[in-house]
Amino acid sequence: MKHLLGLKDLSKEEILKILNLAKDMKLILKSETKKTPHLQGYSAVLLFYENSTRTRTSFELAAKFMGANTTSISVVTSSVQKGESLLDTVRTLEALKTDILIVRHSFSGAPHFIAKNCSFSVINAGDGMNEHPTQALLDMFTIRERLGKLENLKVAIIGDILHSRVARSNIWGLKKFGNEITVYGPQTLLPPFIDKFANVASSLEEAVTNKDVVIDLRIQLERQKRGLISSKYEYYKFFGLNEDISKFISKDTLIMHPGPVNRGVEISSDIMNLPNCTIEEQVTNGIAVRMAVLYLCTRKGAS
Amino acid sequence: MILIKNADIINGLDKSVKRADILIVGNKIEKIGIDIKIQNPDLQTIDASGKYVMPSFTDIHCHLRDPGFEYKEDIRSGSLSAVAGGFTTICCMPNTNPPIDNRAMVAYVRYRAREVSPIEVLPIGAITKGLNGEELSEIGLMREEGIVAISDDGKCVMNANLMRNALLYAKDFSIPVISHCEDTNLSEGGQMNLGFVSTMLGLKGIPREAESVIVARDILLAKETKAHLHITHVSTKESVELIRRAKEWGVNVTCDTCPHYISLTEEEVIGFNTNAKVNPPLRTKEDVEALTEAIKEGVIDCITTDHAPHHKDEKNVEFNLAPSGTIGFETAFAVLYTHLVKNRGFEISKLVELLSINPRRIVNLKPNVIVENQKANLVIIDPNREWEVKEEDIISKSKNSVFLGKKLTSYVETVIYEGKILKKDGEIKC
Ligand SMILES: [Zn+2]
Fold first, then answer.
1. Keywords of this protein's UniProt record, alphabetized (chain A) (predicted)?
2. Is A54 annotated as belonging to a binding site?
3. Which residue among the candidates B47, B306, B393, B425 is catalytic per the annotation?
4. B340 three-state secondary structure
5. Whether A108 and B317 lie within 8 Å, measured CB to CB
6. Nearest Cα to B219, choosing from B293, B155, B160?
7. What does B48-87 look like in DSSP terms, one character per residue?
8. With a cut of 0.90, is the ipTM above it?
9. Nearest-by-CA chain A residue for B272
């Protein structure tokens, strides 16, 4: 594996390889020293055109635990402000002898564009509305760890499907294992032809009932200004995992959220405190999954 | 003196194909007849056995980028690209820098074209000053200077009242208003067709209604004003349906589509291919079918290329940042031949209608016909040649063709304009 651009083009076997390796990496995370030499001598650059403390920190720690030299470039300090093109940035990174680039970009396909124009490995840390592969991998890792399997599950994804790269990556990844995906959200936040990729529930109640997993998505509050939703309160009442809907969610259903959570908008604090809610675990698993991905991307020939 | 032997001639007056020889003397067709024999030391003989000869083509929608963006294309390079594709009259859109929105700018394009272009270049004037959609430009003065139509192409005149006035005003000067139909509130931020592929790629989509709602609006305005509305680069099934009804209604409306809309779908974008980023966006198979059917029925009057050159560096960026547009002159005929004649069994004469006859009619130009005593403006087509569109073969300054790598059948081999050979056996001679 040279790059990780998305789960759409990854095979089931490749996904399993990452998840299996992540299991070993999690053991390292649990050990006292949290140090492996796997990436010693490698330089990993984090290039973030969008703010994301969580994902960036997770990748950075993953790379550091494995001994890589890391450096982080965020949009405010980068020369993008001075009008440097992404292609020029790529050339500079090349000259700086980058081995792995972890990139977050607000445009779909930006990591693909970089991968086409560089010799180093590119890991997509979220591109526009397209994919967020490591998030989906960590979700899949968490599901397999909790439920003991990754096949033939009923999974609901709730919220802003239209803009969600997390939803897309999860749909691509989970469908490869024969899982049944149902989505639900306001009509303004459902993309066209989503019914070709997943079932579309007609109510929140229907969406969450009899599910093995419910993945709740973060809502960007500026969608309100763009006329896609009317208010936080209304969203919570009709589309949030609120007190009314909690009775339809089984105690065995995993409740997941990529974070950070808008409490009282997407999900109630009560539900977040349930033992079947995995939000914090997902964060820990994220590091393990990213360690696995980083490792595999530096072992280009040996697949 | 040129003698074209054994050509299958489609003269542009009727649909028949007749085999004959054509003798060109000076800028005119001197004689058309069976087995013409001439003894003259200056005679050039072209053997056209198995090839078609038809009137050269006219494109009423292209971008030459001159002045202001000569690094993408200029009047000469654009003209040569047009020659390569068999076009000898091209009408260029006014979205240059500065825009063609006044008499002096029209004069510049006309003057410059006479200096550097081997073919006829006719400017299209802006509807509004600065293409700002606010005030009518001096359409009458531009008409005197030689514009053949007005358009704010690239932009839509979003103010319906202003569009109504433009239609009324253009009537005084007997020119069509060419409308780029795009409701910019609906298309804002869109990167490709809103649909299956945009959902798959996570790109913001442009709904098909961004086009069709303005098509409907402009049809209603044309109905009321009785002005000549020409809707350009039609891309959706719904637009076609609206135009079909408008024609039944007796509205003075004509329209065109481009080769890419009848041959490609939104799937070209997969892989974030910026050469497939065009505006309006590539649509779906259903739209391709509807457009093809509309061509057959005559609802679509002509084909334009919307030749839109961009520099390689401008296209080699993130998909969101890439400008829209594909070049089109050099592939237009072969795409139409491949998709309409070869794959769908259209008569070859249909292409003459779409590329030679109807576009001239729309902008009130005298027809090109292959008849004795008429100007020798013609092309020789090899219908059997198969070729692949390759960057290194492109004549245009820009190489941003959505057809790169595609295999096409038929080739514009020779181009003659006013008796001069501009392209022969695939080589540009001007
Ligand atoms: Zn246009």
1. Pyrimidine biosynthesis, Transferase
2. yes
3. B306
4. helix
5. no
6. B160
7. -TT-EEEEPEEEEEE---TTT-TTT--HHHHHHHHHHTTE
8. yes
9. A109
